[in-house]
Specification:
The structure holds two protein chains of two kinds.
Chain A: H1 2-5, E1 9-13, H2 14-24, E2 29-32, H3 40-45, E3 52-55, H4 59-71, E4 76-81, H5 82-87, H6 89-98, E5 104-110, H7 124-130, E6 134-135, H8 140-157, E7 161-166, H9 167-170, E8 172-177, H10 193-196, H11 200-223, E9 227-230, E10 236-240, H12 244-251, E11 256-260, E12 262-264, H13 268-276, E13 280-284, H14 290-297, E14 303-304, H15 319-323, H16 345-355, E15 359-361, H17 386-397, E16 403-408, H18 409-425, E17 430-436, H19 465-472, E18 476-480, H20 485-497, E19 501-507
Parallel strand pairs in A: 2-3, 2-4, 4-5, 5-7, 6-7, 10-11, 10-13, 13-14, 15-16, 16-17, 17-19, 18-19
Antiparallel strand pairs in A: 1-8, 6-12, 9-11
Chain B: E1 6-13, H1 18-31, E2 35-39, E3 50-58, E4 71-76, H2 82-85, E5 89-95, H3 100-106, H4 113-122, H5 129-139, H6 145-160
Parallel strand pairs in B: 1-4, 4-5
Antiparallel strand pairs in B: 1-3, 2-3
Helix pairs in contact in B: 1-4, 1-5, 4-6
The chains are: A alpha/beta, B alpha/beta.
Chain lengths: 515, 161
């Protein structure tokens, strides 16, 4: 560790670069729940003793703690994956109204191509919807520079700032120069009821502020160097953002570019001005037509990608076809699929479920892989916590089926507890199985409240799963090792046949845990 | 000065040390003064699935991904992954897959095969030996550095002989 500190340069991933950039900008507090491709941001920040870093219970909690810290006067950061931002949307929308005090940055990592996610949503629309400024780095070096800029914008305009990554930017490594930390000056923490108490009358006034702020941010977008014009040939011009910029520069080195590092609010004047200077103009972006639709509304003529390319990640191989306006040819290259590790205890849990021919409401974690043939023993995956609530929903229309809800230990803490309370409160019967491998395995083994260790592996208060399940109202709570196959099967059969709400905690620590 | 970008595709399956191998090469290129970009796969894909890492270095590098037919060298860790990965290799590019069986025969501890293959790779790239040594020191914990250097040099010598 000490060795790396003395380096002038380091080979950093986009996520690590964000962490270093935030650290150098005097970051004080950072909160997140793990989620690929964003996990390494907090893991890196936790290595800096000056930063109060935490794994939060879920993204809503993380967002609120980090925003609260900013309001109290310390530069703060919240990081998540795209679907994690959905969980934090409630505080996010109103944080646009309250604004900040010290700088507050929202980092969100989209996953074009769904390398490790359940959907391919384009989070840039959230900036438009919430009226927050949006920065889009295209490489790790930019990620580091942009996060510093984001803190400045946040404090200058009294706004949370979104920094949108994609899997490719998060997980590209680049040689990045390291600088020393600059302690940020801390604004005073004061009671400010009209600013921080969002009752209708105050919120109306703040909405006026938000619209004014949006105008000021637009003016800033016009003059900031984040939106840079690179003059090449006047025959060929590109308006682009994020990593497609890098692919284009390789393919069309002589072209002219308007690279949008700050892609919301839109810099309309700069866009119009650039469009006038090139003969053929292309708008190239990954996923949704976010830039495309807006630029079209300006009356600017250009070529955009065929709608078939809104699906999946753009890669350098696809760029010529995208620019030529061709339709995407779906080609399936056979790739080895991920699977549960050999000897993983989830195999035993799902073997028992398959043997009893259960309908299994699933959730998000390594165990989602049990849907793959030949096991095929997990029958839904919607979002965090839905293993518990789908179980309740399914029983309404199919009460005669053997329905079991499964959820991982970390996922249960994230958003399964509310579902279990709901089941008990609404007199639901049935079986919820907590697949407890005592870690957040899929994202690489992060701590959570039920492991009793913090992000820095320090001992802390441990959430006892069996106690909380009883407190939620479960009639039976069993803890059992699924590797005791016969005992496990017998217990499961018994609980499924009973007229009760039961939680079976199938507990065996992940084999990948370092001990 | 012509901006020549060198491209290396690494591929195999989760758990084979594919990312570690590209990590050593990435740090080595950086220590030798190049601009470096390297793509990785994390998360679900690492659970025994296909793992790929692309390394590109030169005076100035844009794309972190290598196009079909764009790799100067292919470092393949698993024969079954080869048909898919070889599409990255350019005509006349170096395919290190032919060394895979020899590497497995030469190395007692399979955990060091990735370092051995990086040693082989090092002979094909314009990066000085001192930079490779420094990279091994940066990437591995101190107690593993001497053995990794030894295995690396063994691979490097095999390619040079």
């Amino acid at each position: 560790m000490a060795k790396k500190k003395t380096l002038q340069k380091a080979l950093l991933s986009g996520n690590e670069a964000l962490a270093y950039g935030a650290y150098e900008a005097g970051l004080g507090v950072a909160c997140a729940y793990p989620g690929t491709p964003s996990t390494e941001i907090l893991e890196t920040l936790a290595r800096f003793p000056e930063v109060d870093a935490q794994w939060s219970v879920n993204e809503k909690v993380a967002f609120e703690v980090a925003l609260g810290a900013a309001v109290s006067g310390v530069r703060s950061l919240f990081a998540c994956k795209h679907v994690g931002l959905n969980v934090a949307m409630d505080p996010l929308m109103t944080s646009s109204y309250t604004g900040v005090n010290a700088g507050f940055v929202i980092i969100v990592a989209d996953d074009p191509g769904m390398h490790s996610s359940q959907n391919e949503q384009d989070t840039r629309w959230v900036a438009l919807y919430s009226k927050l400024p949006l920065l889009e780095p295209s490489c790790p070096a930019e990620a580091k520079a942009y996060v510093k800029e984001a803190f400045k914008i946040s404090e200058r305009f009294d706004t949370p700032v979104m920094v949108r990554m994609t899997t490719r930017v998060s997980h590209t490594k680049e040689d990045v120069a390291l600088q020393s930390r600059e302690e940020a000056t801390r604004p005073v923490f004061e009671r400010n009821i009209p600013k921080y108490v969002m009752v209708p009358g105050h919120a109306y006034q703040r909405h006026i502020f938000v619209e004014k702020r949006l105008g000021k941010l637009k003016a800033y977008a016009e003059r900031t160097k984040l939106n840079a014009i690179e003059r090449g040939t006047s025959k060929l011009g590109f308006i682009t953002s994020s990593v497609p910029y890098q692919y284009l520069k390789d393919e069309y080195p002589d072209g002219s570019y308007l690279k949008l590092g700050m892609s919301y609010p839109f810099c309309d004047d700069k866009i119009r001005e650039f469009a006038k200077t090139v003969k053929r103009l292309y708008v190239v972006e990954e996923l949704d037509p976010f830039l495309e639709e807006h630029i079209r509304s300006l009356g600017v003529k250009f070529t955009a990608k065929d709608p078939s390319f809104r699906i999946g990640e753009l890669t350098p191989d696809l760029i010529p076809e995208v620019v030529a306006g061709k339709v995407k040819r779906e080609k399936r290259v056979p790739k080895r699929k991920p699977r549960l590790c050999p000897g993983c205890a989830h195999w035993a849990s799902f073997a028992a479920l398959k043997k009893m021919d259960a309908y299994v409401a699933g959730d998000i974690g390594c165990y989602t892989l049990a849907c793959l043939p030949p096991t095929s023993a997990l029958h839904s995956c919607l979002c965090m916590g839905a293993g518990v609530t789908f179980h309740e929903g399914w029983r309404k229309g199919a009460p005669d089926r053997k329905i079991v809800g499964v959820v991982g230990d970390s996922t249960f803490v994230h958003s399964g507890i509310t579902g279990l309370i709901n089941a008990a409160y609404n007199k639901t019967k049935g079986v919820i199985m907590i697949l407890d491998n005592s870690t957040t395995a899929m994202t690489g083994g992060q701590q959570h409240p039920a492991t009793g260790l913090t992000i820095r592996n320090e001992p802390t208060k441990q959430l006892v799963l069996e106690d909380i399940c009883r407190a939620c109202g479960a009639d039976n709570v069993d803890v059992i090792d699924p590797m005791n196959v016969k005992e496990f099967e017998a217990l499961l059969r018994k609980r499924v046949s009973e007229d009760a709400l039961s939680v079976v905690i199938s507990r065996r620590p992940c084999r990948l845990l370092k001990r | 000065m012509k901006n020549q970008v060198h491209s290396v595709t690494f591929g195999g399956i989760g758990g084979q040390g594919v990312l570690k191998a590209s990590e050593i090469a990435g740090w080595a290129a950086m220590f030798d003064g190049y601009h470096v970009k390297k793509s990785e796969v994390h998360g679900m894909a690492q659970r025994g699935g296909s793992v790929e890492s692309h390394l590109r270095f030169g005076k100035k590098v844009y794309s972190p991904l290598i196009s079909a037919g764009g790799a100067d060298v292919l470092v393949c860790f698993h024969h079954e992954e080869h048909p898919r990965l070889r599409t990255f290799l350019k005509k006349g590019g170096a395919d290190l897959t032919e060394y895979l069986d020899r590497a497995e025969a030469a190395i007692d501890n399979p955990r060091y095969i990735n370092t051995f293959l990086v040693g082989l790779l090092s002979a094909k790239l314009p990066i000085r030996e001192a930079a490779w040594m420094k990279a091994i020191e940066a990437v591995f914990r101190a107690e593993f550095v001497p053995e990794n250097k030894r295995v690396f040099l063994e691979g490097r010598r095999m390619a040079q002989s």
